[in-house]
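From the pipeline queue, job 12 of 40. The input is one protein chain; the requested action is below.

Action: predict structure.
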Amino acid sequence: MPPLMLPETFTPLAAAFVPCFTAPTYCVFCFLVAGWVHCVGRHTVTAVALAAGVVGARSWWHISAFHRFFARAAWCMDHVGLMVFRLALRWAPPDEPLCLLVDDTLARKRGKAIALGSMHHDPLLSTVRKAFASFGHVWVVLAVWVPLPFGVRGAPKGIALPILFRLYVGSKRGNRKDARGARAGGRGARRTSGLRYQRAAAAFPPPERRPTKPQLAREGIALVAQWAAALAPGRTVYVVGDTAYTNRTTMERRPANVEVVGRMRLDAALFTPPPPRRPGQHGRPRTRGERLPTPQAMATERTERGTWHRLRLTLYGKTVTPLVFRGTALWYGALREAPVRFVVVRDPSGRRRDEAFFCTDLTVSVAFLLTTFAKRWTLEVTFFDCKQSLGFEDPQNQAARAVQRTAPFAAIVYALVVLWAAHQVRAGHALRWLTRPWYRHKASLSFADLLAAFRQASACRVRPPVLAAPCPPRRPRKSRPCARVSGRALTRHP
C-alpha cells in the first residue's frame, strides 16, 4: 500500500466519514482526498489518482477503481454532506441561529458525450445588450456559514462550507445532430453517433423529471431543516438567497424552524394583512388588505420629509453608515401566508442605487437583517476557490452517477481543508503564508494559503516519491502463437 499523503492531524476529520463508506471505499476516499489536494493541474480523475501516488505499482489499485468510486460505488453524497454539517456545527456559536446560504453556479463543459449536460445562461459572458449560453452543468448548492479563526488579528472570518448539491438540468441538451454545422456538412461539426453519445442522450431526463432551481433548493432546505432539528434543536435556520430563491416555491409551506432572508424588488406590490371576517359576511374570505405604496414610493416620500435613519454597522468587512427605514407588509406575490419585515437601504453618497431586503421573521432588527444577507457573498468566494484551486469544472464524466458525485467531491475537499486549518489554529499551530511584495497589506489567510499549509503538512509525513512501474492491465492477455507482418507468418522460436 502506498503512503497516504495526508497529515496526521487530518485523521480525526477523515474518521468522521467512516460511516458513509464501506472499508475498501473509505480507503479510496482517503486517497482521493489526498490526490485532490496535491493535484496542481486539471483535476480529472486520472490526474487525481496520479497525484495521490497510487497508480503504477503492481500491488496497488488499477485506475478503474477510482472511476468506479464515482460511477458505481455504494455511497450517498447527502450522507457525506451530513457529516460536513456535523463538523461545521462545532464552529457555529451555540447562542446564535444557523445561517444557510443557497445559490447556483455554472460549470462549463466540452464534449458531446458529457452526461446530463445542457445549455445554460452564462452570466460571465453575457452583457446587457446580448445574452450568451454555455454548455455544462448548473449546481444548486447549499452551504452553512460558520465563523472561523482566520480573520484580522485573530477575529473570526465567515466562510461558507458547502454541504448539499443538486444538479439542475436545463431544457436544451445542445450538441445535437440537427445543428447548423451538421446540416450543412461543415467541418466544425462532428458526428453525433456512437455508443458514448447514445448513453449521454439516454441519460438526459424527460421534462417531467427536470425540477426547477427553486424546487431543488426547496428539497435541500427541507433536508437541512431536518438535520438542524435533530442535531441542533431549538435553533432557527435562516436561509439566505438571491431573488431566484426567494419566491413562493421556497417560502410557502416551509419547515417550522426555517426563516428566509432575501432581496425585495423596489416595485414590489405590498398590502396590509386581510381584515377579520365580519359576522354574517358572505363569500370567500379576503386574502389581502389594502394596497400599500411600493418600497420605491416609500423611499421618495421619506426623502421629501427627511425621515431616513442612519445606522452604523459592518458589511463585507467595512464599517458603513447607510440610510435605512423599515416596515411590515404582506408581499402577496412571494408569500401569501404571512407578512414580512422589509428594509430599504440608501447610500448617503448617492453612488449606489437604493436596495430593499426582507425577512419572514418579524422580530429581527435592521442590523441583523442586513448583516445576514451580506453573508451570502461568502458562497461566491467558495465557488471561486473551488473552481480556481480544486478544479470544480475539470472532471469530464460520461456516466450520470459520476456526474452527480465528482464535482461536489471537490467542494467537499474544500470544506475539509478549511476545517482542518481551523482545528490547527485552535490547537495553537500558526499557519503562515509566503510573503509577497505585491500584497503589502495582507492580514488574513486565503484558501490558497490554507491549501499550501495542508500540502506542506502532508509532505512532512511522506517519503520521497519513487518512480513506479506502468499500471497493470485489468485482465491478463493471452499470448498469440504467431503474428503477421507484411503478409508473412512469424513463428515463435522455443
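Job complete. Confidence is low (pLDDT under 50) at residues 181-188, 463-472, 480-494.
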